[in-house]
Amino acid sequence: DTAVSQTPKYLVTQMGNDKSIKCEQNLGHDTMYWYKQDSKKFLKIMFSYNNKELIINETVPNRFSPKSPDKAHLNLHINSLELGDSAVYFCASSQEGTGFGGYTFGSGTRLTVV
Amino acid sequence: GQQLNQSPQSMFIQEGEDVSMNCTSSSIFNTWLWYKQEPGEGPVLLIALYKAGELTSNGRLTAQFGITRKDSFLNISASIPSDVGIYFCAGQLNYGQNFVFGPGTRLSVLP
Question: Which of A21, A32, A35, A43 to mutate to test the interface with B (most CBs of B within 10 A)?
Answer without folding.
Answer: A43
